[in-house]
Amino acid sequence: MNNSYSYRNAKESKVAEDIKKAIENNNFSLAASISQKYLEDTNNIPLNIAVTGQSGVGKSTFLNAFRGIDNTDERAAPTGEVETTMKPKAYPHPTYPNVALWDLPGIGTPRYPADQYMKLVEFEKFDFFILVSEIRFNENDAKLAKEIKKMGKKLYFVRSKIDNSLRVAPRSQKEYDEEKTLQEIREYCIRGLKEQGVASPQVFLVSSFDLHLYEFRALQDTMERELPSHKRDVLILALPNICKSTIYKKKEVFRSQIWHYALLSATVEAVPIPAISIVVDVGILVKVLQDYLFGFCLDKRSLEKCSSSTNTPLDELRAMLNCICCGKDVTKELVLLMLKSATVLLIGLAAEEGSRWIPFIGIPIAAALSFTTIYKFLRSNLNELSVDAENILTKVLAIK
After folding, report:
1. Which family does it belong to (predicted)?
2. Which of 36, 239, 267, 270, CA to CA, is 20 to 30 A from 88?
């Protein structure tokens, strides 16, 4: 797993070096401003994902599921058996507005003929394409694939409604074998695309109603691996929590930013907190904990949705959670309560370190008790919340 994130060290090296120089010159204000700019730039990197396919293939349902919402949500892309997409339309991620999934019209329609499709949809703005089909990929799909490859973009084929296919398969097979059926479907799609001149097509079998089954996880891993390094964290945070490895990856993204937020909270607008022997900008901690809740789907709305979809009382779900902020509005008052209940232990741990070091970049800051305490506070809560997210996932999957 560490190799998957080795790019992060390279990405941060210049920033880390600048911060180190600022701190060595006792210029903590400059160090904090460098961290702040880095976080702002990183958290606003755009990611545009194009989803295309013919009408009725489950394109909009897939797009909604990818964003973690169902078809009845007011933010959902409209679904239907007739073509509902007349022009490219962006659907922002509900938590990360810098991430947008674009619902594109199907290729080969009167409005979007195959030979003009790439120009009409302005393909340059998309980071990669996902082409959805219910049964087989046709000639126009193959033309699009070859054009996208020619332009240096990535395209992934999604064979949708795989749950429907498996539901009816036993009726036509004397000895039904699910794995064999899945392999035959995949090979059929790949063979059809190769016959139409598509080299090495990547086909993934997906059920939009059960993303944890079949090959959506493989699609996630492939997209992550093939994206430019500076966009990988953006994708990881936007992915639905369908498996523990996704939760772990999100935790690692959040963890890589903790020392930046700790530096900001301990230096920018930090004020002494009564009964706590450190200075803190509580507003920054409110923002970070809110980000954790939304990223792990432990915010109030997500827990209510989970309660409804699993027919589990909300109080029963809450009883499974350890972190005090789960399912709550994170306020300054709540953060102060959390700090006061944890600070005695955290300060003790920080003091034991003697000469302290900022994690990852090795800068001594012996005077920064506040930094070390805040860092440990955020790391402790991040670990706790990731475990809570895994507990909720286990509950959901057990019911499904």
Report:
1. Belongs to the TRAFAC class dynamin-like GTPase superfamily. IRG family.
2. 239
